[in-house]
Amino acid sequence: MTEFNVISFGAVPDGTVDSTEAFRKALSEAERCKGTVIVPSGNYVTGPLKLGAGVAMKGSSGWSFRDFGTSVLHLRDGDTDCMIDMTGAFGGSISGICLDGGRKGKNVHGVKIDWEKYNGGEKEDTPTFDDCRIGNFSGDGIHLKHIWCFSIRHCMICHNLGCGLYIDGWDAFILDNWFSGNGNCGILGGPCVASITVTGNRVEWNSGAGFKFYRGDSYNITGNFFDRSGGPAISLGDENGGCNTVTVTGNIFRRNGKPCDKLKDDLDSCHFRMMNCENVVVTGNAFLLGCDDGGKGEYSPVHSVVLKNNSYCIIKDNVMHRAQLGETFVTDGDNSTCVIDNNIG
Fold first, then answer.
1. Strands 290-292 and 296-300: what pairing?
2. Predicted confidence band at 259 (pLDDT cuts at 50, 70, 90)?
3. Mean pLDDT, rounded, of the chain
4. Is 98 within a domain?
5. 29-67: string of b/e by CB count within 10 Å (b at 16+)?
6. Residue 34 resides in a domain
7. How far is CA 322 from the centre of its chain?
8. Mind spelling out the 3-state secondary structure of 62-77?
9. Could you tell me the residue range of the domain that residue 117 belongs to?
10. Banded pLDDT at 135 (limits 50, 70, 90)
């Protein structure tokens, strides 16, 4: 037997009965054989859970933009640091599961992997998240500290008080997701983020930047839609260092730099900001200013692109007609080895 239905272990999908122990028993049995925990449609109340190596937790999804889906886990209380701990769950996966944090506790994450150091597990973590809705947590939707190798596909990570996704680590595929309405960035990088492919995501109405990465290398950022970020849609580097070997291609930047308390300074009202970076190519993107839905709120951004002390970068062949209120490009420091050309509008 390799499949374990949580109802068989006593879980009650009525949204009121505490089903924590039933889930823990099912997960424990699955860990013995690298099996699958089946979560039928329903609303389950649980405390914190721990996923084991090779264990899959599968539900029936069914989420929509505004509502949680059919297999929903509701956080019992805020006396924890996460709802599902996947630290050490090498090859573990969560699919078709919706996690509702209920804004409980303080800095409680939906899912976490947390090693004390890089390569803490001494091999690739390789967790996968597929077709999940993770929202309403007082911390980050997914918090990955010292992660090595993961994928997130077709998920909605929304309305968390922290970031949608926090990454401190490398080797990732982040494809076809919604990062919507989070209290900080859609995706925030920690001290090091490297070797990531971020493609086809909708990143909208986050109170912080869409994507913010301070350090690292080898990013492929392609075909994403950034809308109404409270800061730059993409922010690379800062005053103390930067990123290198990055492609930013085929994205839409729409009404970013929204006026809010998350703006670090006046220059954060922009679509794209880059400091102390090298080997970055920004090409084939489309930029547009705007305000809130229904013609409400202030128009933004003030600027399209803000650059400081970058080297050997290319910003070329982007369209920027009606893209900003003020200057298209704001440059500071030494950007003399960069090519900025043919950005029409």
1. antiparallel
2. confident
3. 97
4. yes
5. bbbeeebbbbbeebbbbbbbbbbbebbbbbbbbbbeeee
6. no
7. 28
8. CCCCCCCCCEEEEECC
9. 49-58+74-341
10. very high
Query: What is the rounded CA–CA span in Å between residue 82 and residue 277?
Result: 34
Residue 317 burial by CB count (10 A; 0-12/13-18/19+): exposed, middle or buried? middle
CB count in 10 Å sphere of residue 171? 17
Q: How many CB atoms lie within 10 A of CB 209?
A: 29
Cβ atoms of residues 333 and 308 within 8 Å = yes
Q: Is residue 162 part of a domain?
A: yes
Three-state SS string over the chain comes to CCEEEHHHHCCCCEEEEECHHHHHHHHHHHHHHCCEEECCCEEEEECCEECCCCCEEECCCCCCCCCCCCEEEEECCCCCCEEEECCCCCCCEEECCEEECCCCCCCCEEEEEECCCCCCCCCCCCCEEECCEEECCCCCCEEEEEEEEEEEECCEEECCCCCCEEEEEEEEEEECCEEECCCCCCEEEEEEEEEEEEECCEEECCCCCCEEECCEEEEEEECCEEECCCCCCEEECECCECEEEEEEECCEEECCCCCCCCCCCHHHCCCEEEECCEEEEEECCEEECEEEHHHEEEEECCCCEEEECCECCEEECCECCCCCCCCCEEEECCCCCCEEECCEC
Backbone angles phi, psi at 129, to 5 degrees: -125, 125
How many structural domains is the chain composed of?
1
- What confidence tens digit (pLDDT) does each residue in 224-244 have? 999 999 999 999 999 999 999
Q: Is the residue at 328 inside a domain?
A: yes
